[in-house]
Known about the structure:
Blueprint: H1 7-17, E1 25-30, E2 38-44, H2 47-54, E3 60-72, E4 75-86, H3 92-96, H4 98-108, E5 114-118, H5 126-137
Amino acid sequence: MSGLDSPEISAAYDAVRSDKDETNWLLISYAGATGNKMALTKTGKGGLAELAGELDDGQVQYAYVRIEYANDAESKRVKFALVIWIGENTKVMRKARVSIESGDVKRVLAHHSITVDANEKRDLDEKEIVARLRKAGGADYNGGRG
Length: 146
C-alpha cells in the first residue's frame, strides 16, 4: 500500500487518537520526488498552527489532526480531521494522483469527522474547522455560534 502500512504511520495514528498522548497531528509525505511510496514525515503537539508551518508548497501531503473544543463550560469534544494538502507548486502528475491515492490514505487514517482539502495555509484556520466539526457532529450546544 505504498508505505502507508508502515509501523511508524500506525504508531503515529494511535498516538494522535490516544487521550494519554500529547501528539495531536501527523504528516505523511511522498518519500521521494518520484514514485508513490509514502512515509511519516513528522508528528507534533502544537495543533493546526504548527502543522500548517510544516506543509510544503511543492508537495501533496496528508495530515491527521486531533482537535479539541468546548461546547460549553462543562463539556469538551474531541474530533479528528483528515487534511489533504496540495501545495500550489506541486507538479501536475502528482496532483493528478491525489484522487486515487487519497482513498488509500482514508482507509489507513479511517476515523475522521471531516476531510479538509487545502492548498493554502489559511485553509487550516482553526475557527473555521471547528465550525465544520460542530456541524458534522450533530448536536451543537453553542447555539450555532461556531
